[in-house]
């Protein structure tokens, strides 16, 4: 139990790390790529800066996802477990997509720059499918989280928006999702209210009762 509690506390640092790295990836990619082609940017050593930030961000999202699941595991049912597994698989696939930006795209840009710039065929389909599963998985996880009532509705709503944005092909498609996860991670540090405890008896003026007498 203590190990699970410690694991759930990783939601906050992992969420903030994911958000910070996603924001850094967006800024660095804008500076490095500019108005040029992706193959031109990938041939430069500085291209590793935004791609490593993007990969680190999605790895941090994986850690935060597991921590958020542990935080709500007592409230989740079969639907929550299925949503978590879908989000987990989708995030792993998304990490694989960012992995290619770090280790495949730079060499591909040197050997076949036209292929790197086209982004078509099975490569495009693979990226779209990976982030589609990731976005839908996180959306289902948000729905399951809404049903538990552990987190406020506004935070889960932001997670839903971030999940949908993840599907859109943007330079830093996980930024909104990472910000939402950071909020949930912060809120996860709060103690869980005991819903099954009986309300404390009070008198007619709202005074607490002890042994049948107001105190």
From TrEMBL:
The chain crosses the membrane at residues 49-70, 82-101, 121-143, 150-168. Keywords: Membrane, Transmembrane, Transmembrane helix. This is Uncharacterized protein.
């Amino acid at each position: 139990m203590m190990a699970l509690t410690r694991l759930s506390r990783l939601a906050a640092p992992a969420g903030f790390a994911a958000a910070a790295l996603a924001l850094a990836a967006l800024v660095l990619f804008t500076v490095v790529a500019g108005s040029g082609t992706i193959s031109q940017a990938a041939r430069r050593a500085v291209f590793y800066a935004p791609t490593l930030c993007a990969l680190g961000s999605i790895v941090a999202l994986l850690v935060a996802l597991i921590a958020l699941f542990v935080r709500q595991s007592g409230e989740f049912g079969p639907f929550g477990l299925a949503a978590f597994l879908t989000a987990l698989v989708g995030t792993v696939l998304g990490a694989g997509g960012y992995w290619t930006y770090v280790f495949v795209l730079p060499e591909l840009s040197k050997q076949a720059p036209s292929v790197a710039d086209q982004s078509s065929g099975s490569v495009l389909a693979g990226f779209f499918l990976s982030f589609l599963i990731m976005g839908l998985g996180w959306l289902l996880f948000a729905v399951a989280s809404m049903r538990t009532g552990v987190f406020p509705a506004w935070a889960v709503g932001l997670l839903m928006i971030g999940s949908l944005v993840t599907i859109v092909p943007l330079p830093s498609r996980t930024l909104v999702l990472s910000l939402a996860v950071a909020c949930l991670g912060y809120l996860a540090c709060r103690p869980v209210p005991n819903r099954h405890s009986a309300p404390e008896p009070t008198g007619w003026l709202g005074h607490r009762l002890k042994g049948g007498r107001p105190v």
